[in-house]
Amino acid sequence: MVYIFGHKNPDTDSICSSLVMEKFDKNLGLEVEARRLGNVNKETQYVLDYLGIKAPELLERVEEGQRVVLVDHNEFNQSVEGIEQAKVETVIDHHRIANFQTKEPLYYRAEPVGCTATILYKKFKEENMPIEKKEAILMLSAIISDTLLLKSPTTTEEDKKALEQLGKIADIDINSYGMDMLKAGTNLDDFSAEQLINLDAKKSEKGNKKFVIAQVNTVSIEEVLKRKEAIEQAMTKEIENNGLHLFVFAITDILNSNTQVIALGKETAVVEKAFGTSLQDHMVFLEGVVSRKKQILPVIDENM
Length: 304
Ligand code: MN
Ligand code: MN
Description:
Blueprint: E1 2-5, H1 12-27, E2 32-36, H2 42-51, E3 57-58, E4 67-71, E5 87-93, E6 107-110, H3 116-126, H4 133-147, H5 157-170, H6 174-184, H7 193-198, E7 201-206, E8 209-218, H8 221-225, H9 228-242, E9 246-253, E10 258-264, H10 268-275, E11 283-287, H11 292-303
Helix pairs in contact: 1-3, 1-4, 2-4, 2-6, 3-4, 4-5, 4-6, 10-11
The structure holds manganese (II) ion (MN) (2 copies).
Residues 7, 11, 13-14, 72 line the site of one manganese (II) ion.
């Protein structure tokens, strides 16, 4: 059995692309099963409920030699426990390639598009494989999520085209469905500060420096900042417990496409250099910034 999974703290692309890749491989007669590396977030749950399907089973760790397919990530520190000893057979991804090494040859497909599902859409087309309504909704949901309804600067012409075509197959109004789906993910009230900063946290390393960039989507930055004190306490705890040099918490306003950043740790000067401005109250407001991958991570990594 080959397991297919996205990254830890799975987002909609990681869950949906795992399910779609499972369908793709099963169509080819392969024995595969989608898995997930963490809790399903509210946005993704909206998609699963809409389709009336269950999330993939949780995968805690893999044994040595386990055959795996990675979607929506490649960095081992974002992958399953035991990944170093697994047999990575395939990667389908749209991120930078880092902290990644295999013993054996593999199938690797990386494209600088806005979403893994966009690559999967192309794979279906290339194989002349029909796309059913369920897979169309899974893929279009992933694209809407990763590109914030095509508003993120990570959006490419290929994402736009894929979304349009998938919308036709699914026969749904992309904008109203997409807004409902994105909003479902912004209800953060019942999460503790600790949970909030870990909902969508990605670990990175540069040299011997470890840092985390976490992100939440909201329709009101103010609302989230009401809990700033508790959030900062949780961030400080995370920094101490994990020996982090920097913790960046990005609160992204999906309606106005801006991000409020809270930064803590001994390397906060990196954030100031990265965005050319000084932190006020541990914060910096980034106009027009919504993409961690394209607008936050690269500049922080470069200045780290
Ligand atoms: Mn992702
Ligand atoms: Mn993605």
